Amino acid sequence: MARLRGGGKSCLDKAYRLLARRPHSVHELTVKLKEAGYGAGEVDEVVRLLVEKGYLDDDAYCKGYAASRVDRMRLGPKRLRADLARKGFDEALVESALENVYGSDGGGEWDVAHEAARKKAAAFKPEMDAKEMKRKLFGHLVRRGFSTDVARGLALDMFDKLREG
């Protein structure tokens, strides 16, 4: 593991530098270390060590990342699931994070979507046609990863209440 690369930087040193910037999933860190030119065996050993020491914790990172994305960006479960999968989290972790954020019954999706819809509706210009606003709101919610049923319910059925406040 102490094998040195150009510039005298070990795989472990590189991993620590990457983790000092921000948390990484096991998958992300593995890919970055391999792209930096370290061998698969060396990378696996470093990743194993970092997991043992608690510097890499996919469960905590996945749940924290999911909560942060929903809090900051008001994402729906479809978009969040895709973002988490792109980070390399396995399906069980993704499902656990989604349940953590939206609740076991998925009812939290409506609350998050309602907040996203309220913010978007408030940004529409008053002179814009109501039909156009509803269309734009529906598209916005679907792009954010909410189900079409939730998006339709908010954009069509709840639109007047959203505009009021």
Give an account of the 3D structure.
It is built from ten helices and no strands. It is mainly alpha-helical and 165 residues long. It folds into three domains: 48 residues, Arc Repressor Mutant, subunit A (Orthogonal Bundle); 45 residues; 57 residues. α2 runs antiparallel to α3 and α5 packs antiparallel against α6. The N terminus is likely disordered.
Structure in a nutshell:
It is built from 10 helices and no strands. The protein is an all-alpha fold and 165 residues long.
Helix-strand layout with pairing:
Blueprint: H1 11-21, H2 26-35, H3 40-53, H4 58-73, H5 77-86, H6 91-102, H7 108-123, H8 130-143, H9 148-157, H10 159-164
Helix pairs in contact: 2-3, 4-6, 5-6, 7-8, 7-9, 8-9
Can you write the helix and strand succession as a string? HHHHHHHHHH
What structural category arises from helix and sheet content? mainly alpha
Q: What is the 3D form? A: elongated
Distance between the termini: 59 Å
Largest sheet: none
Tally of DSSP helical segments: 10
Q: What Rg do the Cα atoms give?
A: 21 Å
Number of DSSP E strands: 0
Percentage of β-strand residues: under 5%
What's the domain count? 3
> Share of helix among residues?
over 70%
> Which whole number gives the mean pLDDT?
91
Oligomer: single chain
- The poorly predicted ranges are 1-7
